[in-house]
Amino acid sequence: MPYSDEIGLTPTDFSKWRLNTTKLGAQRWEFIDDKNIHINEQSNLTKYLLETDDFQPPKLQFEISNTINEALHNGATFFKSIQDENSGTWPVQYKGPMFMTIGYIACCYFTKTLIPDHEKRELIRYIVNTAHPVDGGWGLHEFDKSTCFGTTINYVILRILGLPSSHPVCVKALKTLHKLGGAIGCPHWGKAWLAVLNLYDWDGVNPAPTELFALPYSIPIHPMKWWVHTRAIYIPLGYLSTAKIHCELDPLLEEIRSEIFVKPYDQIDFKSNRNNVCGVDLYYPHTKLLNIMNNIIVFYENYIRPKWLLDYSNKKAFDLIIKELQNTEYLGIAPVSAAFQTIVLYHVQGPTGDDYLKSFNRLSETLFLGKQGLTVMGTNGSQVWDCAFFIQYYFNAGLAELPEFYHVIENSFKFLINSQFDTECVEGSFRDKRKGAWPFSTKEQGYTVSDCTAESIKAIVMVMNSKHFEKLHSLYDINKLNDAIDVLLTLQNVGSYKFGSFSTYEQIKATPMLELINPAEVFGNIMVEYPYVECTDSSVLGLAYFNKYSTYRKDDIKLTIKRATDYIIDAQDVDGSWYGYWGVCFTYAGMFALESLHEINLNYENSEVVRKGCDFLVKRQLEDGGWGESMKSSETHTYVTTLESLVVQTAWVVIGLILADYPEKDVIRRGIDLIIKRQLGTGEWKFESVEGVFNHSCSIEYPNYKFLFPIKALGLYVQKYGDEPI
Ligand SMILES: CC(C)=CCC[C@@H](C)[C@H]1CC[C@@]2(C)C3=C(CC[C@]12C)[C@@]1(C)CC[C@H](O)C(C)(C)[C@@H]1CC3
């Protein structure tokens, strides 16, 4: 039972929630009224997502699985049953970060938009259910220790949503916040949200001058050469902070002011707290250089900045915001920047502003309901990424061409082909060519991701080469894949830094020395693009697979693959491991690296690199036959095992070992046994532990991984060794 139920915060009536999707994969939760409850039936998928008792698991072909193939088929049947047929995707609560919802709440409060009661109740429940079980605070992500940032913003949300300060949840959280020194020590983004809500003085927030965006692009550290997320956040944040925008003070805010600090609000000298960050939060301390720069900028802002220059650069920032909205169908790249942007739009255009209204409306697509309540996710979903894996893995596992899976593949294929970008970004938005590429979530979100493009290419080539799917071939002009290849080839880093690698959204455009002025305090490595071994691996996989079936740019592709695999080999650590940036952690990267090396015919027998890669993983096999890695691996850059194995990581290792032609079959079989042991009678696997991570310190769940990777692992095993009894 969720904690919220135990303390009397009852959930809304779950039978009234509906998940609506569009063909392009947008997701929106709706709470319907009594009249419509029987007209608009709740789907089985919704029941699954809300974990209600009336969820109907699918009828399985094998009531009890006696062989590996039967277990595989059952798993695949379960996963098939939770596809959203309308969009062809697998909607999931892509949760983990605890600093997303504040944006939505601040937007609603700032714009005086009432949050309906059912939404409020579920938002409260989610926060209450993720409070730290001992001290009642919150951290950066759902499994973190309590921090000043997490505790402050989530406390503020609860209060704004109507939980009284005397409520035991608030009392406990506030005690923890005060122990941490109160909200004064929030890191930069926390201070910014508080300042927007008039709970902190902008003088206590380090500057983010919009003049930066008015500089000529030729400057090597121009902000539009930073990582796409960081620049997307600092444009509207810069606007809000230079214009010192905040909402009106009201009695509730006055109360909150009196609660979250350890001193009376009027007695706080905010100016002297710009660099005060609570020790527990500090992941990436300021450099001396940043402090000096901040002092100079503050002096400039207070005494030198002419009004005309401020107006001019804020106009530049505003224009960039409008362009971002045009490029993303008003979604914005991700929820943090989207919320800051929406507030800027409201400030400039007022409550009836067209852009403001559109932008506000789309914020709801990042809200997702689950058993624990409603929360703002890390992005507007993981649709493309999951579909690309799904199609490939059903092919890998020998399932795709079975008649019972025809329709799920068809749905997903249609979604993927409709998610390919077919337009370029608007002029002057500092965005690269995107036509032909794919994003991580939906086409409307509009941002190319290297590995999402590569994995989608591979999935589409599989369907287009299968006679079984002949009827679908006329739906797609195969030449469109050439555009995808064109974009993917431009993404390889070919400068002197990390030659041959691939990053996430763009090539590396500016020096990592910019990290010296990283103002975020809670994240490292966010200023520019970096080389990522997983993105490089996937890019190799997509390119190599395409190259087998097409004559298009054959030599360019070969050269790119050569450079990329050289990079992958070079990125291996002396102990044989690869550090994974986007999944937890060495098991994730190990799988991708071994698969990409397999693509260039390197295996355990003929390659020292592969041998070391496998041995590193095999040494970490647990007694129970599987593998389990803690999120601490990502934080400490050292393999930290869990006590018991985890299904997803076991699958990652098994896939890597099979593709590397690891010679000891028994080692692999024990991993397979663990995966099967954890499968339920319904064919499904349950959530065990967080699978994903970003910026080394923040966890994020990928709920579809617990199906995708076990299915691939079992399937590859059967393809290689034949079916075996369990
Ligand atoms: C520190 C900041 C700016 C926080 C906002 C959160 C975003 C930056 C995160 C949330 C989800 C996220 C981890 C994601 C990615 C980048 C950073 C994201 C968007 C990418 C696209 C990077 C490439 C990866 O291989 C993969 C495709 C798995 C992920 C998907 C999610």
TrEMBL record:
It is a peripheral membrane protein. GO terms for biological process: ergosterol biosynthetic process; triterpenoid biosynthetic process. GO terms for molecular function: lanosterol synthase activity. Residues 382-718 form the Squalene cyclase C-terminal domain. Keywords: Endoplasmic reticulum, Isomerase, Lipid biosynthesis, Lipid droplet, Lipid metabolism, Membrane, Repeat, Steroid biosynthesis. It comes from the Eukaryota. This is Terpene cyclase/mutase family member. It comes from Pichia kluyveri.
